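Q: C-alpha coordinates for this one, please.
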Amino acid sequence: MKNLAGLLEILSRVDRKIKLSVFGPMEDAAYWQNCRAIIKRLPSHITVEYRGMLEPHEVSPTFAVYDLFAFPTLGENFGHVVFEALRAGTPVLVSDRTPWRAVPSGAITVVPLASIEIWRQQIAVAADRDSQEQRSLRMAAIEFAKRYAASDRARADTLEMFRSVAAS
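A: Here is the predicted structure, written as C-alpha coordinates:
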Protein backbone atom coordinates (compact mmCIF):
# COMPACT_ATOMS: atom_id res chain seq x y z
CA MET A 1 0.00 0.00 0.00
CA LYS A 2 1.29 3.42 -0.97
CA ASN A 3 0.16 4.93 2.37
CA LEU A 4 -1.19 8.29 1.26
CA ALA A 5 -3.05 8.61 4.57
CA GLY A 6 0.23 8.16 6.43
CA LEU A 7 1.92 10.83 4.32
CA LEU A 8 -0.96 13.23 4.96
CA GLU A 9 -0.67 12.64 8.71
CA ILE A 10 3.06 13.37 8.49
CA LEU A 11 2.40 16.56 6.53
CA SER A 12 -0.04 17.72 9.20
CA ARG A 13 3.01 18.09 11.46
CA VAL A 14 5.25 19.94 8.97
CA ASP A 15 5.55 23.68 9.56
CA ARG A 16 6.81 24.55 6.05
CA LYS A 17 4.80 25.49 2.98
CA ILE A 18 4.23 22.25 1.07
CA LYS A 19 2.33 21.48 -2.11
CA LEU A 20 1.58 17.77 -2.49
CA SER A 21 0.47 16.43 -5.85
CA VAL A 22 -1.14 12.99 -5.79
CA PHE A 23 -1.16 10.79 -8.90
CA GLY A 24 -2.67 7.40 -9.57
CA PRO A 25 -5.96 5.57 -9.37
CA MET A 26 -8.45 5.95 -6.53
CA GLU A 27 -9.02 2.22 -6.24
CA ASP A 28 -10.61 2.21 -2.78
CA ALA A 29 -13.40 4.77 -2.32
CA ALA A 30 -13.49 4.39 1.47
CA TYR A 31 -9.72 4.90 1.73
CA TRP A 32 -9.91 8.00 -0.49
CA GLN A 33 -12.74 9.38 1.70
CA ASN A 34 -10.49 8.92 4.74
CA CYS A 35 -7.67 10.76 2.92
CA ARG A 36 -10.03 13.59 1.98
CA ALA A 37 -11.04 13.95 5.64
CA ILE A 38 -7.36 14.25 6.62
CA ILE A 39 -6.77 16.78 3.81
CA LYS A 40 -9.59 18.97 5.17
CA ARG A 41 -7.84 19.08 8.55
CA LEU A 42 -4.41 20.04 7.17
CA PRO A 43 -3.00 23.45 8.06
CA SER A 44 -3.43 26.13 5.39
CA HIS A 45 0.28 26.04 4.44
CA ILE A 46 -0.15 22.45 3.22
CA THR A 47 -2.02 22.08 -0.06
CA VAL A 48 -2.96 18.81 -1.72
CA GLU A 49 -4.03 18.35 -5.31
CA TYR A 50 -5.22 15.10 -6.88
CA ARG A 51 -3.85 15.04 -10.44
CA GLY A 52 -5.26 11.73 -11.70
CA MET A 53 -3.62 9.04 -13.75
CA LEU A 54 -0.50 9.42 -15.86
CA GLU A 55 0.19 7.79 -19.18
CA PRO A 56 3.53 5.92 -19.21
CA HIS A 57 5.18 8.60 -21.38
CA GLU A 58 4.15 11.27 -18.82
CA VAL A 59 5.83 9.72 -15.77
CA SER A 60 9.42 10.96 -16.20
CA PRO A 61 8.57 14.53 -17.26
CA THR A 62 6.08 14.75 -14.39
CA PHE A 63 8.55 13.53 -11.77
CA ALA A 64 11.15 15.95 -13.15
CA VAL A 65 9.18 19.02 -12.04
CA TYR A 66 8.97 17.97 -8.39
CA ASP A 67 11.59 18.54 -5.69
CA LEU A 68 10.95 15.33 -3.73
CA PHE A 69 9.16 12.02 -4.02
CA ALA A 70 7.95 11.18 -0.50
CA PHE A 71 6.90 7.52 -0.38
CA PRO A 72 6.06 6.15 3.08
CA THR A 73 4.88 2.85 1.60
CA LEU A 74 3.74 0.03 3.83
CA GLY A 75 5.59 -2.42 1.58
CA GLU A 76 6.91 -2.94 -1.92
CA ASN A 77 8.59 -5.93 -3.57
CA PHE A 78 10.73 -3.57 -5.62
CA GLY A 79 9.19 -0.14 -5.94
CA HIS A 80 9.63 0.72 -9.62
CA VAL A 81 8.22 4.14 -8.88
CA VAL A 82 11.36 4.85 -6.81
CA PHE A 83 13.56 4.11 -9.81
CA GLU A 84 11.30 6.21 -12.06
CA ALA A 85 11.68 9.19 -9.71
CA LEU A 86 15.46 8.81 -9.56
CA ARG A 87 15.73 8.46 -13.33
CA ALA A 88 13.85 11.76 -13.69
CA GLY A 89 16.19 13.46 -11.22
CA THR A 90 13.81 13.59 -8.28
CA PRO A 91 15.33 12.75 -4.88
CA VAL A 92 13.42 10.07 -2.96
CA LEU A 93 12.37 9.87 0.67
CA VAL A 94 11.17 6.29 1.17
CA SER A 95 10.14 4.01 4.01
CA ASP A 96 12.24 1.11 5.19
CA ARG A 97 9.64 -1.28 3.77
CA THR A 98 11.26 -1.52 0.33
CA PRO A 99 14.53 -3.07 -0.89
CA TRP A 100 15.91 0.44 -1.54
CA ARG A 101 18.69 1.69 0.74
CA ALA A 102 19.96 5.17 1.49
CA VAL A 103 22.89 6.39 -0.57
CA PRO A 104 25.60 8.82 0.57
CA SER A 105 24.76 11.30 -2.20
CA GLY A 106 21.35 11.91 -0.64
CA ALA A 107 19.50 10.82 -3.78
CA ILE A 108 17.68 8.24 -1.63
CA THR A 109 16.88 8.77 2.03
CA VAL A 110 15.34 5.85 3.89
CA VAL A 111 13.28 6.52 7.02
CA PRO A 112 11.69 3.94 9.32
CA LEU A 113 7.98 3.87 8.56
CA ALA A 114 7.05 4.26 12.23
CA SER A 115 9.27 7.33 12.80
CA ILE A 116 6.80 10.11 12.03
CA GLU A 117 9.08 12.72 13.59
CA ILE A 118 12.00 11.74 11.35
CA TRP A 119 9.68 11.87 8.33
CA ARG A 120 8.56 15.34 9.41
CA GLN A 121 12.16 16.49 9.82
CA GLN A 122 13.26 15.10 6.45
CA ILE A 123 10.37 16.79 4.64
CA ALA A 124 11.24 20.08 6.36
CA VAL A 125 14.88 19.67 5.30
CA ALA A 126 13.76 19.11 1.71
CA ALA A 127 11.50 22.16 1.83
CA ASP A 128 14.41 24.29 3.05
CA ARG A 129 16.83 23.32 0.27
CA ASP A 130 18.16 26.11 -1.87
CA SER A 131 18.34 25.80 -5.65
CA GLN A 132 22.00 24.71 -5.63
CA GLU A 133 21.33 21.90 -3.14
CA GLN A 134 18.31 20.80 -5.15
CA ARG A 135 20.30 20.82 -8.40
CA SER A 136 23.05 18.71 -6.78
CA LEU A 137 20.51 16.17 -5.51
CA ARG A 138 18.86 16.02 -8.93
CA MET A 139 22.19 15.21 -10.56
CA ALA A 140 22.94 12.64 -7.84
CA ALA A 141 19.56 10.97 -8.45
CA ILE A 142 20.14 10.76 -12.20
CA GLU A 143 23.67 9.40 -11.73
CA PHE A 144 22.48 6.83 -9.22
CA ALA A 145 19.72 5.69 -11.60
CA LYS A 146 22.21 5.34 -14.47
CA ARG A 147 24.64 3.30 -12.35
CA TYR A 148 21.85 1.15 -10.96
CA ALA A 149 20.36 0.44 -14.40
CA ALA A 150 23.76 -0.76 -15.64
CA SER A 151 24.45 -2.90 -12.57
CA ASP A 152 24.18 -6.62 -11.95
CA ARG A 153 21.93 -5.78 -9.00
CA ALA A 154 19.32 -4.26 -11.35
CA ARG A 155 19.21 -7.45 -13.38
CA ALA A 156 18.96 -9.61 -10.26
CA ASP A 157 16.26 -7.39 -8.72
CA THR A 158 14.21 -7.46 -11.91
CA LEU A 159 14.49 -11.24 -12.19
CA GLU A 160 13.47 -11.64 -8.55
CA MET A 161 10.48 -9.36 -9.07
CA PHE A 162 9.27 -11.44 -12.03
CA ARG A 163 9.75 -14.66 -10.04
CA SER A 164 7.73 -13.18 -7.19
CA VAL A 165 4.91 -12.16 -9.52
CA ALA A 166 4.91 -15.55 -11.24
CA ALA A 167 4.71 -17.33 -7.88
CA SER A 168 1.67 -15.36 -6.71
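A few notes: The chain has one domain: 4-167. The domain at 4-167 is CATH 3.40.50.2000 (Rossmann fold).
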